[in-house]
Amino acid sequence: MADLNSEHKRWSVNSWLLGVLIILIIGQGVLILGAGLSYVPIKSGYYEPLAADQDVAASPSRERLLWLEKQLAPPPLLVWSDTPPDFDFASVLNADKEPGGVAGDLSSGQANSDETKASVGDTASLSLSDMTASGTESDVPQLSQTNSLFAVDPDYIKHLPDLRMMDVEERKSVFIASVLPLILRANEELLMRREIIKRDYAQGNEDRLRRWAELYLIDGVDEDDDVDNLYAALLVRVDAVPVSLALAQAIVESGWGTSRFARQGNALFGQWAWSEHKGIKPYEPSNDRAVVRSFPTLFDSVRAYMHNLNTHFAYEEWRLARAENRNLDQSALALRLIPELERYSEDGQIYIRKLGNLIRANNLQYYNDTQLTQGN
Q1: Domain 56-372 - what CATH class?
Q2: Range among 42-56, 58-72, 139-153, 225-239 with highest mean pLDDT value
Q3: Which of 39, 85, 90, 122 has its CB surrounded by the most CB atoms within 10 Å?
């Protein structure tokens, strides 16, 4: 009789736990639907299969590319912070108050006609006094002078806080503080890969160079193409993105981090995917099969954006312009590369003008002279 009572109790406990589990699952579903969350997280990595009407047979599988990446240079592991670092955006925005300066309208984020004529050379040799013209050095807590550069603390967050209820100035400060370290870290990764490729070439490691070429979607890998040609093509593709340009595109594509895609899917750059479970469906999509691709973390979004610029056929001229003008300072290079991004958006020339205005109006060129401090 005791055994029957014990068995009955176990069944009662198990039934109770099962009921709680079912309630939790239903509750989670209600919350997800209520929040408008229409995606499931995808794996890390930046490879998305091509659309059905594109040449899928000519593209290696995503799994193969992820395997190649793991063999050649695994993605960096970051130590995550719970909250964005403090950062005083207004002190940077208002840093240049001299005649001919580029401080823009904070509320609109657009530059007027006089501001768009500001010379890139005016900001190429930025000094600490320029950054803090309206206050003391402590006004910019996350930037400190290191030779001619500014060091940014490597604080990384996985997701943006809800920026919609913040005032404009605070929203911009939090957005820059959140995204800037991720852009700098992704650029560091690209430059480290570039050095590894140079080493492989110097050591005559043809097999690794061919795998690098496959990873970066260069044609001719399986056709015994001359290794010198593959190496030259790799140097065009494996390179950093100017910080001000990356920030400007993140701002435009995410609405300073307030868009539904940024909040629900960590999508900072409006990249498309072709399977519904890989992203969020726009309310009025221009393509019935397309979704805005979602990412597990903000860093995955940044890496995918840079890999997209470095590999997609639509940005071949952008890559060539970057290679040909690599001797320019980063501020001049960013403005030189903007016209080559016309195909990034359906808005075309309007999009190009918007990027240039954002950089000037919000002094984003100042962030070209930043680097991460050691650690994390």
Answers
A1: mainly alpha
A2: 225-239
A3: 39
